[in-house]
Each structure stands twice: as structure tokens, then as C-alpha cells.
Amino acid sequence: MLSRILIVVFVGGALGLGQVPSAPPPPGVPAPSNAPNAQYPRINPDSSVTFRIRADDAKSVRITTLGPYEMVRGEDGFWTVTTKPLASGFYYYAVNVDGFTTTDPGSQAFFGYNRYGSAVEVPGPESDFFAPHDVPHGTVRQVWYYSKATGASGSWRRVFVYTPPGYDDNRNTRYPVLYLQHGAGENETSWTNQGHANFILDNAIAAGKIKPMIIVNENGLPPAGVLSARGDAAPGARGRGGAMIGNRFAEFDAVVSKDLVPFIDRTFRTLARREQRALAGLSMGGAQTLRIGMNHPELFAWLGLFSPAIGNLDPATDYDGKLADGAAINRSLRLLWIGIGREDSLFAGVKASHERLEQAGVKHVWAETDGAHVWTVWRKYLVDFGSQLFR
Amino acid sequence: MLSRILIVVFVGGALGLGQVPSAPPPPGVPAPSNAPNAQYPRINPDSSVTFRIRADDAKSVRITTLGPYEMVRGEDGFWTVTTKPLASGFYYYAVNVDGFTTTDPGSQAFFGYNRYGSAVEVPGPESDFFAPHDVPHGTVRQVWYYSKATGASGSWRRVFVYTPPGYDDNRNTRYPVLYLQHGAGENETSWTNQGHANFILDNAIAAGKIKPMIIVNENGLPPAGVLSARGDAAPGARGRGGAMIGNRFAEFDAVVSKDLVPFIDRTFRTLARREQRALAGLSMGGAQTLRIGMNHPELFAWLGLFSPAIGNLDPATDYDGKLADGAAINRSLRLLWIGIGREDSLFAGVKASHERLEQAGVKHVWAETDGAHVWTVWRKYLVDFGSQLFR
User: In angstroms, rounded to a whole number, what is the distance separating the alpha carbons of residues B266 and B253?
Assistant: First the structure.
């Protein structure tokens, strides 16, 4: 019975999972963002969340990033806490045990804050549009390509590519492409893992709300070591650009324009022209979208800025003053979409940017919505922005 | 300058990464398995590994799963430890802080032990065959399909599919398929993330050692809740089977034979016959391979058992006695491959199974190798087994 002994050891948790309750679980259900079989975190009927952690010798355990919530040790040795009722949505969180900030073993791993961390999805009526339904499903592909624009001699890079339902069968169909970027501290996996962009597209395409398209997610922030080793400055930068972040953006601009777009057009059945190519991103990715969009009108005719990190734009000087000529921008772009939630800490700055763009005569869609600086909002923006693309 | 402020907050680590050393780093290099930019764990010139953790108020911090190694608090407040020199390879590990067992923020997340945990890759001369090289690269696809064999009314399941270089271009070429399974506590991501099966195939195909093929990775262990809710028993089980693990295997057998294989043959350009279809797995996946292989000779003509959890087989009773008729098995199978390392705790039991199969006249390749029950070994087995397939 060696096989059974082995399996029990592995499944039972040689690492001391501490997830199996000793009594029947309370009301509520495991969060959909949990690791397989993990009973906690648990979504209660009032949409509060109960966390439960085993830390036998700890003096202090708390939930951070979300909250913070101090946890209390029970008689069974487990530390627990229940949050206030939460609006439906996606919440990053961390566990801090005696000063060590790390993950909850009950959660799946999501890359955010430059680490693989924890998150809890609180379901609600609005969760339906990103859930897998009985509709045709697209494919999320990991593909590798060589970029000469990174490091001293280039490097292999991984990119996530969503191909819509029917892509493999409709051999004569070519598709428009949306290049869709994450925020700072996230990466090419985030629009799939946190955002469920693939299910959002599957559902919206089935409903006829979004045209079938390819979506490409790259890693927008190359390692700092590569950049400091090169020591280059953003070429010709006036206004924004020139600093460390400017250099990182310049490097990503080169990755996208010199290597990524040609690779995608060479590898997939794309409609390889600017009118069939969009660029969008959230937070830092929104700032990159505006910068790369301004630098490469030959590549992108549709730009989407989701809660973008572009407060208090100065159209006269930022991006080499390209935004100062509203008429030229309006001739070039088919859509400039800017959305942000009123509870977002960036709201005031982005609203000021919106007003200055209006003053400069730069046409754009301004979407002032509910919500904070969270994935809950960006998933909806993908539907709003996506439904306007390539029309 | 709101954008820069935001980015610095995100990148600098709102969660208190504790990875940035305050002095120049010591000799050695960050492990290739680290999260982006993480300086620790660090591979030293003698192939020892230095771990470094911030836990300000902890009484006790240690590395477990690997080791254990007690960490020591330095004057800078960081806890560190250096292991003995390690053989090159892939090592799962965990961090225990005052009784809380969790991840190291410096590591990528690997699904093992039923959780997203940490691991360190110690490079060596043998790391080359699974590294990305300047050869044509295949694609790793996440695809979703509906399986009626799981739960009360079925469920959407995700499967990872490797398509070899040229798959999208060679529209008239059909390919054989290897169904390749993980061990207990791992899942459909493991052969890509831990095993680098895609790079192994890219390199071996380029070298002409392995024929171009499709590889499919499913999740071999459905949630226990689903199974206990159904309460079914393994049908007609004699010998192995009938217990909890037997039920789980029966459910996975149904997923593979009724839903997965037809879906793959419907969706990809496969050579849809048993002579062009192989099944293999490691540890628990090796036991599942033998069971599903014995139940479905109509599906698979090639079987690979990598360090399988099948100690002390009794060919007369196990798997309904199907292994007792060596001549029938030999007519049916093109290859039965069994490999295990001499340092594996399962070695004695699997060697006994090998000897009993010989006594029963069941032809098989017996690969007795160096190594323990680790991914380091299974990556090599994929090359050894894969190079014999479909010849």
C-alpha cells in the first residue's frame, strides 16, 4: 500500500496546511480565488470575509493591504478575523506574522506588488460577466520571442496571447489586435489571472458586444538591473521622461515597437495596420499607453487609459509637446478613452489631465465611474473600451 | 508628478518586500526561480543557497521541506541561513515563522503540496537541456473544455496544451499526443512551471531527439469535496482501487477517457489513434497512468511511469488482474517505460513491482537511475521516455 501512504503524506500537507477545520465549517463558501480545496478565506452571506491562519507560536497576526485587520487566536490555536461586509470585487491582501509579510496558503498566487501574493474575490451579481459560461471559449497562449531591445544582447521574453473562439478553424480570417497592459508590480499574467480578460472576451464576443480580436499582454516593467546597467536616458525627453521611470518606459517602448508588434504580426493572423491595432493599460500601463501611443502614431489608432498614472498633464511640455496640437491628435487617433473611478486616489489628478486635454482640443471619451484603483473597475473598463474598438 | 509617486510606492513594495539589501550583495547570483528582481534566495559559487527573510518580531524562523535550516537574525534585522552545497536541481521549500508555514516572497509561486509555494532552482551543467535556447519555440496554450464526468452536472476544466514549433504553419501536418501528468498536490501548470517541459521539447525536437508532438497536461486530482459528495466507488475494483484514492482515480479516468481525449482530438490536429497516443505521469500520475492504461487499451499504446506510486504490485489481483496476462499486455502496448531513482524513498517498492512484472512476462523498459523523488529526475525522464515515443 505504498502508493496510498505516499499520497496521504502529499495531500495531507507535509507543509502543515492548517486549512482543514476541526469542526463543520461556518456558513458561507470558500472564495473562488482560493487554492484548490482551501476552506478559508471564506465569503459569508453578508459579503464579509473570514480569514483563518495557523501560526502556533506567533505573538501577532494580521491581514494587511486589505484592512488592516488584527487576527485573534482561538482556543483551537487558529488565528481568525472577519472583515466588514465588502463590495463585490477583487482584493489583494497579505498576511503579517510577527513582522513577516507574506501569503495566505489558502489563496491562489497572483503576481502583484512585484511578488506572488494573495487575493480574495468577493462574488456578487456583477461577477457574471467574467465567469466561464457555456459559450465558445478562446485560448490563452504563452509564446516566447527574442527581443533585441532588452539588455546588452537581448533576451527571450514570454507574452500571453488571447486568440478568440474559432481562431484555429477560421483559417482565412484575420483579426484586429489589442495590446493590453497591467499596472506597476504586475506582469503579463495579470490580465488573465486577476482580470479574467479571456472570459470577459468570450462572453462579450458571444453577446455581440465586442468584435472578435486578439489580445496581447506583455511585461511592461523590465528588471531594474537591466536598465541601470545600460544607463541610457529617455531619448529627447521633455516634460515627463528622463528619470528612472522614463528610462523604463523608453525600454518598453522599444520592446513594443521594434520587437513585439512585428513578432505578433509575423506569428498570428492579424490585420497588420494602425486602424486595426489598439493599445491600452491600467495605472502605470495607462501612462505607458499614452507615451507609446504619442511616440508611435504609425502603430496605434486606438488608445485606452484605465485609471492611468498621468495626473496633471501639461500638454505643452509632456510627451515632447505632442498633445498640444489637438487637431493633429484628432486626425491621428480613432479613439482616446480615459476612465477612472471617483474613489481612486488618482482621481483628482487624472480629472485635471482630462480638463487640460479638453482645453488643448484633444478629443477623448471621459468615463468618470464608481470605484477605486482596483481590478474590479478595470474588468468593466475592458468591456466599455473594448466594445468601442475597431468599429 | 503623481505618476512617479504612484509608481515608486508600487515598485518599492507597499507590502514590505524586505528583499533589497542595504549593502552590496555577497558573491553568487539570484536563483533563476526567484520572483523578478528578488536578490534572495541566492546561489553561491559552491552551489550552496543563502536565504534571507525579514521578520522583525519573530522568535524563530526556519526553512522547511528543504533542510530544515534554522535561520539566524543578523544585526540588520534580517534572518539568514546558508545551506550545505546542493546538487543542481529543483527544490521545493517553505518558510516557517513562529509556527506559520508559508512562502518566501523572493520565490516564484509553484503549485505543489496543494498550495502555491516556493522553490529554488540550483543551476548546473545539467540545466542546459531545459533552458530557452535559440531554437524554434512551441506554444503553451490554456484551453477550457466542459467535462460531464466531474461533479453532479459537470464543470469547466482548464488544460495546458503544448503545441510544437510550426504547428500553426504546417496546416496539413497531424501530430501524435502525449498526455503527461503531475504528482499528488500539483496540477496542470506543473509540467510547464516546475518541469519546463516546453523548453525540453523545443530543444529535443530541434536536436532531432524527440519527434514533434502535442503534450497535454490536465489536473489529475479533482477536489475531494466533489468526490465525497458523489460517494461512488471504483467500479468493479479488485486489488488496488475502491478506497478514497481509488475513487479519485476512477473520476480522473472518466475525465480522460470520456471528455479530454475526444476534446483534444476534436480541437487539435492529432493523429487520433492509440498507436499515436501516449500516457505518462510522475509519482501519483504514474499510478494513474498504469490504471488508466490498463482500463483503456483502446486509447493508449505507450505508457510512461516516472517514479510511480506503485510499490509491490501484485499482477494477479491489482488492476483486475489485467497484468497477469503478460502476452496480452505485450501485444497491446508498444512501450511500457518505468523509471525511478535509487535515492527515491519509493525505490524498493517500485523495484519489487518491476521484478513481479518480469515474472508475469510483462515486457517493459526498466530505467534505474541516480536521483530522488524530485523534478530534477522527471525532466530527464521526459527526454528518455519521449525519445522512444512514436517510433
Answer: 19
